[in-house]
Amino acid sequence: MIKKEMIAMLLAGGQGSRLGVLTSKLAKPAVAFGGKYKIIDFPLSNCINSGIDTVGVLTQYQPLRLNQHIGIGIPWDLDRNVGGVTVLPPYEKSENTDWYTGTANAIYQNIDYMEYYNPEYVLILSGDHIYKMDYEMMLDYHKSSGADITIATYEVPMEEASRFGVVITDDTGKITEFEEKPEHPRSNKASMGIYIFNWKLLKESLQALSEQPNCDFGKHVIPYCHERGSKVCAYEFQGYWKDVGTLSSYWEANMELIDIIPEFNLYEEFWRIYTKNDTLPPQYLSADSSICGTIIGEGTEIYGQVRNCVIGSGVTIEEGCDIRDSIIMNNVTIGRDSTVRKAIIAEQSTIGAGVELGAFEEAPNKEKPHIYSDGLVAIGEGSVIPGGVRVGKNVAIAGITTIDDYPDGILASGETLIKGGEAV
Fold this sequence. Notes:
single chain, about 425 residues, alpha/beta, seven-stranded parallel sheet
């Protein structure tokens, strides 16, 4: 019988609706980050760097591109005869066939996968955070504390604590209370959504809660175990950690990469971030181009002016452009004499000549002010913006648009323009 000390279960099925048009065609863990990576590269790289060679990736929403990216796990050295990476979508069973309806329900539906490896411990991970973490150190803490469950926690500013599930601990690190997104938090120790369970306890609790609708770790499984006397401890993580679940936090995390001394270093040799690499030609920067504080992917051609941007591969920025404080994903073309300010432009999009993105005074988005905010312009994948138009701030655009969609050549701040049945 196969016996693994610890296996990882990576939850990567979320829609990521707070990323708006960026996730209308793909799962949040497959969204680009830092020019050449996908968000899921970070937990996968953490696994192999921590010596974990068996990872189940649970997918559901728009999984095609995520599956293509992961493949058989070669970039992360997870193409193993025993273990390695396995993509685990929902599947038809003889009875109780269902979509994944919560984080714990998704794990429950894959009990047979975990049973096959008969682990002592199971590591539960989220596929939508940017961080570097040695899970082996967390496991050492789990063992030494005698915990049944260990939750990784991160100290957030007190004013932000109400966005998270927070824990209250005693002097030994044992968790005494949980608060799920409290209005008036009594602690700033936020749960990172990273758990180590003793396998037997995890199995028993998932089976006991199998009828619980939308079964979730933070809301159901951990409180259930805590109430029955399981020892739950907090592992305080000290490094960089960013939840990139909103457009604003996603933009901020990318912009932090281009600081003179970035808080999060993508290029450390001793803790590498691995990804699937396509073979592409080098970048081309014309003699007339001007570039400062920018990450540039392979195969990109720049003929204009670029300041403080994160640019993917295969991008073309034509003559006379002035692009600042923006994220430009793979295979985007920006036509000549265009001006771009604080935009996120998703893959395969085409911006016509003489376009201005991020114009006018800021106004709240009329449809989804909680998603499209902070003065950002969000352009969905495969979108087309015709030449000569001016687009305001807190705007979302998705689909192939034409000049007729812009009265007087303008899309005012706070507007949303979705064409061709695209989701927002």
